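Let's do one together. I've listed all components of the complex below, 392 residues spread over four lines.
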Amino acid sequence: MYSAGMSMSTSERLIEATRELLWERGYVGTSPKAVQQAAGAGQGSMYHHFAGKPDLALAAIRRTAEEMGAAAEALLGGEGSAYDRIEAYLLHERDVLRGCPVGRLTMDPEVIARPELRAPVEEVLGRLRARLAAVVQEGLDEGELNCPLDPAEIAATVVATLQGGYVLARATDSRAPFDSAVRGLLALLAPRAAQG
Amino acid sequence: MYSAGMSMSTSERLIEATRELLWERGYVGTSPKAVQQAAGAGQGSMYHHFAGKPDLALAAIRRTAEEMGAAAEALLGGEGSAYDRIEAYLLHERDVLRGCPVGRLTMDPEVIARPELRAPVEEVLGRLRARLAAVVQEGLDEGELNCPLDPAEIAATVVATLQGGYVLARATDSRAPFDSAVRGLLALLAPRAAQG
DNA sequence: GTCTATACCTTGATAGAC
DNA sequence: GTCTATCAAGGTATAGAC
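Okay, and this is what the predicted structure of the assembly comes out as:
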């Protein structure tokens, strides 16, 4: 992690530019040339620091996955009841119309075809589901959530609602359906005691 | 719609090949050359029938969206209670690891950038949400679903769970998390009377 | 470490013969 | 309607000078 004032090395600039382009255009849609231009680096410079497009993408994907994992842990490991933490995670501010920088990679055929590129995506989404399942289990133990629920299933539903919410938002060019999907999920999860 | 035994015209073969490639590789990852080879057509032949790549993609996307809309209507307009129809829709057989041929287009920057290509995607997903909302409303009217639910929100949650389920499945190269997400949602939706 | 030059392939499309 | 050139541009990388 670089402090705000510190200027980035060429290698850092290449990784950051790649992260932006992967988010915006995916792996297939991102060319080394575009990365070099965005990073202000020459062709030879990029190939000096990285073996090629897949190698650079791997560095970028790993960093993006790491950031996503840390952000999730910060919210799900915070204070409050199980429901409160899940709500905090669902309502966390997101650049909805850009989609999820990790989840969008699953629609990229080249990422899915290369196990080393898919691995960080699988790992961070798996960790997220496990963390959410633990929170749901807490909620069940405390009697806060209704009982006949499988924590792993609810965790998958929560992550899927977010990932699918991005799809609906981008389809409509509006974040409204993302917010609707989240509110619908929260209504279904809401502790019965709190309901009218 | 062509009957099984009828051989397809070149134009039809181009559209069908494009549909497959858009599903597999997206718009950015699909080249006219790949389409021509898959369709067994020459370059000139493709440009005779279609103005170019966007025009051909539009024909393919429209047809895919139409099929998806018809399949959803067949399930949601069928027999049974509101919950039964939603369950039937969620459990409908799908080629999960391939993802949704419509939803995956929302991660394609060129599709989102071209209003004419995004329009059929927005339209069919909007129609699906509206149809689901109507079914949820029926369930509320019948007292079958729990009351403080907003039909439009639940509809968004249902569609998002499916779309996000594809993301989880492709991330893990396994349909298991898709099925988990769906089961979790069904557990949350389940009429209270039916629960232990 | 960075640069320019070079190479070979693919992309997306047009032209004109048949 | 279909075919075979042909084309300018971009994609992905290597070579070698500085």
